[in-house]
Amino acid sequence: MSNKILFLSFLFLIPSFIMAQSKLSKDFKVTPSTPYPVTDAGSKLYFALEDGKTISVKTRGEMATIQRFDTRTMKEISRKEYKDLPKYAKVQKVLQIRGKLFYIYEAYNKKSKEKSFTLYIREIDTNSGTFKPEKKLFTTSGPVTGQPFSWGLSGWGLLGWSGAPKFDISTSFDDSKILVRFRYKPTTKSDAKSNDKIGFYVYDQDFQKVWGEDVRMPYTEKDMNNLAYMVKSNGTATMLIYKTESKSLELLTLKEGGDKMSVHKLDIKRDLLFAKFDLREDVNGNIAAAGFYANGIDFKWSWGGGSTSFNCNGLYSFTTTDKGEILSSYDHEFPLEFIQQYVNKRERNKAEKREKKGKAGMEEVKMTEFFTQEDGSSIILAEQWYVRKELVGTNTQNVWHYRHMIAMKIDADGKLVWMKKLPKNQAGLSGQGQMSFKYVPGDGCHYLLYVGNPKNADLPIDEVPAAHKNGLGGFLTAYKVDDETGDMTKSAIVNMREIPYAGNKKPITAYQFSTGRILETESGLIFETYKKGKEDIMIHVDFE
């Protein structure tokens, strides 16, 4: 039996493992709240308010629950359940914008001849934790299909699909405009004959309509792959597409009053493959774009058969005007020394051999955050994650891997300021769970929080991080990256199996935790977790 099989058998079959003792940082103070009744829901979202309060919005089917929590007294202060959503309603997003909260949901009009969908919003009164009256935004003219899943090789003809919302809601960089985008169900199954019809509806920060159009795309699905979307502060909707026939990138723009998109060809490198592109408006009103690229696709063999693997070689970024004029472009290639950090000797040797052919890279790097700062610089955060069929014990199962993180800063001119690899190693059998990471902005720094194995407290760059299994305890850990220099430190915040709690003789264990529940407050962090006994608690982490 190979070492890999032995490792996986150990990782997934044992009911528990003994965690190495790791010294907790004194920079954080952990305070649990008074417990309160659990709310079972498939969607749980959390939002911080300016007055020391937080709001959670939880959705279970067609029922929504709004809870308010005081982070200073550490008590739940209100709870309101709503069962009056339309039939077939599905939440699309809860949007926090300029001090307001909007609950956005769609409802399928099953009895309509057109098989249409209607999009609604209900503003949440943050002072009382209650819904304001329902407002209808629009009804589609026909059936709507889900949004393409943007990870993997979606921009290059290998589209994947997920259970993502049918309506994508995004905002401009200054939160003055909101774009609602959706794709109509194609009338033909042939990509060579089908031109997508996409709805673009733009609103102001109060959800007053600015303009809206259903637009037929200028190319067939076979010749056009949609890489990225954005809305500018002036209300212009923008798309970045890849033309498969000419192997070129184009910028499509749509303004108020227009029913046709303007097409602008981009003069940038054509010999790269992109996993994902992101667009942002910069401080000068131009469009900043960034995407991780590969110069080829690898083929991986596993116990479940063969699969393609995106071998990421670096980050490509460019800045363009609305008319497609390229102002700057940069290829931020991963250095060999960077690729070789925190991998085993075999992988280091393999990277060195591939470097001679110009193919050294990192497996399955995917962008998670891309935003511009006040000085015009950009922060890019990414993570290695993938799903593979592997032998676990005597059975072949899907194993989710969430591995190293990458943090990069690019200045206002597009030049690389710093690039850091932040090691971690997480694996699980049931989706994301408590894996991946959460970004929280700090004062002159950036925090990346994740649950990891405490054995990795002082990890040399030539060693592989010890694996952490999803759901088996772990330490909530924070990487702190200095915005100016990129210098980073790592701190263990709390043992997820030994959270101090005054109401218990013994520490409590955090159940059903996910990094998506971590929320920034005025004095630190807060997150909700289940403590058993049909009770939830909030955990407050003060930065001391």
Structure report:
The chain has 3 helices and 42 strands. The chain is mainly beta and 544 residues long. The protein has 4 domains: 120 residues, no CATH class; 99 residues, Lipocalin (Beta Barrel), CATH 2.40.128; 109 residues, no CATH class; 153 residues, no CATH class. The strands form 10 sheets. Strands 30, 31, 32, 33, 34 and 37 form a 6-stranded mixed sheet that branches. Strands 1, 2, 40, 41 and 42 form a 5-stranded antiparallel sheet that branches. Strand 13 and strand 14 form a beta hairpin. The protein is globular. It starts with a helix and ends with a strand.
Determine the N-to-C terminus distance. 49 Å
**Total number of β-strand segments?**
42
Secondary-structure class: mainly beta
What is the domain tally?
4
Biggest sheet record: 6 strands, mixed
Question: What is the beta-strand fraction?
Answer: over 45%
* Rg: 24 Å
Global morphology:
globular
Q: Level of helix content?
A: under 10%
Topology:
Layout (H helix, E strand, L loop, with lengths): L2 H11 L14 E5 L3 E2 L5 E6 L4 E8 L2 E8 L4 E8 L6 E9 L2 E9 L8 E9 L4 E2 L3 E5 L4 E2 L2 E6 L4 E4 L6 E4 L5 E8 L12 E8 L4 E8 L7 E8 L5 E7 L4 E7 L7 E4 L7 E9 L5 E8 L2 E6 L2 E8 L1 E7 L5 E8 L2 H4 L5 H11 L6 E2 L1 E8 L5 E15 L2 E16 L5 E7 L3 E3 L9 E4 L3 E8 L15 E2 L5 E8 L5 E8 L23 E2 L3 E9 L2 E9 L1
Parallel strand pairs: 34-37
Antiparallel strand pairs: 1-42, 2-42, 3-4, 4-5, 5-6, 7-8, 8-9, 9-10, 9-11, 12-16, 13-14, 15-16, 16-17, 17-18, 19-20, 20-21, 21-22, 23-24, 24-27, 25-26, 26-29, 27-28, 30-31, 31-32, 32-33, 32-34, 35-36, 36-38, 38-39, 40-41, 41-42
